[in-house]
Design goal:
213 residues, alpha+beta, three-stranded antiparallel β-sheet
Length: 213
């Protein structure tokens, strides 16, 4: 159990300093200290990103993972500013993911995004974990699932045209995806967490989910 909680933070002020597709809020706050007492007033900016869902799409009968590849502007900007990453592509290998809209459940988002981004219908859905992506500056949380799919006809280009999505869908043998993992080809944090979890649980999933021994 954490020693401190939400009641151990005192907000002096909060102001929205930018509001567009996303929102940035500026806080002035104090919090309790491990040694006792309270901190001084600190100013912090918080990126209100929204909350997201990601889903590992797995076909246990064919032992295939359904992965996606797409351009990411954040990766492009980050890679340009770091010379040691100059040969890294801003087209990232990922698992299917999307933002939770108002009134939606995480499970609904997982099924919707699997269809929109990969053309896959989820047959069975299993919760994996919940975590924060960059808690030093951003509010975004992520609900991770694993979904059983039929990858027999997976492929092509998907995504919503009005959101300028250009998503390539890949049905990848698990042993090859694990090789990519070992080679460091997954640099998206969500995909990396998803792949590490899947590597630990793949045998159990295949035992429980495949239709024939």
């Amino acid at each position: 159990m954490a020693e401190f909680g939400e009641d151990d933070v005192a907000i002096e002020s909060r102001e929205t300093v930018f509001s567009g597709y996303f929102q940035v809020d500026q806080y002035r706050l104090r919090h309790r200290l491990f040694a006792g007492g309270w901190s001084g007033v600190a100013g912090r900016e918080v990126f209100e990103r929204g909350h997201a869902v990601a889903v590992i799409l797995y076909d246990p009968d064919r032992d295939l993972l359904v992965l996606i590849e797409q351009f990411r502007i954040g990766a492009f900007a980050a890679l340009r500013s770091q010379p040691h990453l100059a040969r890294t592509s801003p087209w990232l290998l990922e698992v299917v993911a999307g933002i939770i809209d108002e009134g939606e459940s995480p499970e609904t988002v997982a099924r919707r995004e699997a269809m929109e981004e990969a053309g896959c219908e989820i047959v069975e859905l299993e919760p994996v974990s919940r975590f924060l992506l960059s808690p030093g500056v951003m509010t975004e949380s992520l609900e991770l699932f694993c979904g059983r799919v039929d990858a027999g006809v997976v492929g092509g280009i998907h995504g919503l045209e009005h959101e300028h999505e250009d998503i390539r869908v890949l049905a990848v043998p698990v042993h090859e995806a694990f090789r990519w993992l070992d080679e460091g080809r997954f640099i998206n944090a969500t995909a990396l967490v998803a792949m590490l979890w899947f590597r630990l649980h793949r045998d159990d999933l295949r035992r429980r989910w495949r239709r024939s021994p």
